[in-house]
Amino acid sequence: MAKELILLNISGPDKPGLTSKMTEILSNHKAHILDIGQAVIHNFLNIGILFEVNEEFNSSPILKDLLFKAYKLGIEVKFTAVSEEDYESWVSNQGKERYIVTLLGRYLTAEQISKLTSIISNQGLNIDIINRLSGRTSLVQKAEDKNVCVEFYVTGTPNNLQEMKKSFLELSPLTGIDIAFQADNIFRRSRRMICFDMDSTLIQAEVIDELAEYAGVREEVSRITEAAMRGEIDFKESFKQRLSLMKGVKESVLLEIVSKIPLTQGAERLFKALKKFGFKTAILSGGFTYFARHLQAKLGIDYVYANELEIENGVLTGNYIGEVVDGKRKADLLKVLADRENLLLEQVVAVGDGSNDLPMISVAGLGIAFHAKPVVKENARTAISTIGLDGILYLMGYRDRDIEF
Known about the structure:
The protein is 39% helix and 27% strand. It is built from 15 helices and 15 strands.
């Protein structure tokens, strides 16, 4: 005898007890629940229940009782028969690859959703669930104070992964959103350490440029930086050349710069949350320990690795102490810290904006190009360019309500 499967859809104004009262009827008829889902949008309820009619019962009395109860509760119900073949085909899909597409921005529009979901569809992916991670936003709240995040849980295998990521990158500046694509697996929910670049990531400045301004050599430093970006000289050589121009700068200038450099938006909120959730944090910077230690004390950062300025008699010598922290060393340090904390690399997040951050971004389980140069965005798996550092929390699945203080 064929099994009788019915999909029950319930919709209407949300009120306490609806789910209990409707499932009580199914319970009285000894129905087997095969799937259930519920969503409430602006106090309007939608419930889906896929159930199997017990072989001792006929479906007609069940449907009659459900209709009568729905009428009394002021809600609507719809019934759809599901064949065994369709059900088993649906069950077999649970072995498909699963991903999470995350939309981040300051505001949300129909155009953003339409264009993003079109890319998802064209890649042969199916959207199973849509969740909003950001809190409810006031109509009078300023846009620059808002964070909006929506997650799309999708199944399937992209037709062309590189083409899809290229489409996401092209869509982002056109619609004012960031789009992240990551596997929906256990590691996404078990990140335990985050490693940050410092300059233009944790702070809104490049310290060496600030020092150059005081030394009166900003143009010379900029020329060396541009040569390094063109690949004409490597980071270590450019670092040595730029630092040598700082010879004679007084140590007191460092304290003055520290007092003026602002934190990146969202940094304090992010670190409060990371501390609350027990994360380990690190600064892996091509900048200077003098400034990194200041941030360590301010934000409660666990590890700091940066470049040590040589200071004699209260004046910069133009030299440094120890090994230069370049891109390769950042990646090596990330691995060392992961091992020290008994973590897999998949549990580590790396965040940076420059090309010398790409090595650590590449080896981390989640690598984020934060307000980064175009070449970094293109080579990183994930980018944030529209909101602050606290947007990282969304990429790890945290909701605004999880991080209220």
